[in-house]
Amino acid sequence: MVFEFIPSRNPDHLDSSGNHHRYRYSALVSRMASFIPIPRKPNNSICQLDTLLPASFQTPQFKRQLPRDHIFEFLLQELTVRRLDIISKHLWLAGKPLPARPLQLLIALRRTIVAIGRADLHLLWFGDIIYIKPLPRFLLSVQFWEKYLVASPEIYCDAMGLLRSYMWLIGHDVDFLIAKDRHLIPEELTWREWRDVVQTILSQDKINHSIYPERYRYGELRLARVNAIYRFMPGVPNGSLIHGYFREYYTEYNTFFQRKFAWPVAFLAIITVVSSAMQVGLQTKPLDQNDQFQMGCYSFVVISLMMLIVLLIGGAALFFGLLIYNLVTTLWPKRCLNNRDLDTNKV
User: Which residue in 17, 73, 144, 233 has the fewest CB atoms around it within 10 Å?
Assistant: First the structure.
């Protein structure tokens, strides 16, 4: 099997060593290129592969494209988990290297399943919400695997990893019904067909587990800790103190401040209780004449007031800093898009 390597012109596709990220899979996939995890049907007719693709996809430049015209760019964007792979040595801080819980157990834990199209948010959770990427239709097509997925080592490994995660999520028929109800799997997929897919993968003893991306050695990951890794860990490519890994779950300022400033409010409540106790103590005769107690109360009040002022100034600075940042980042893409439209009109 000869692979078609597609060099990336985007520097974001480079790993920390400066090499193209996808080339690290080539040696592994070359030993498994003949393995297609989808079983063939006896009367398997060749369908139009275009019908397995979405209507369009958005490029990093905010441009809508047809998947069939940019198939490998679409597949790389649809399946890649590179942003988690590059912090794989820190993922133990966000989750355990164990399979994800099946869907029935997630429901029992009262997790709200949110379907999302991004593979790099697949099985990430915060609060009572867990993101799950629906299983693409093209991953269940033998012809699609043969024509496109095995043609790129990185795409092949990402596709295998996503299938592996669904083996964790759907183990029993109850999980299968939950996946159907949450629109996580194609409507036309039957339980027998899914069992055949799982049995085909599990029956292959030759599968080298290092074929899977590093991300899929972990199940569920805590989104808040992944954000913290991207914000504070040194040496993380494209790390951002403001953006983190994914910040879109804060859609309003009040939600942001409610989550981030819950502990200062609790701290102020403790200070209030302690101050009230000190005030009562100062009204008693034994403590009223105790110079050490009075000095301790004085120091505590001064320190508490200083901390309160620091919190108020810090909260105000954070609010206006985020406001200015959001204004700049909102106007800058608009300006870039307008300049691109002007350039297009000139042509």
Answer: 17
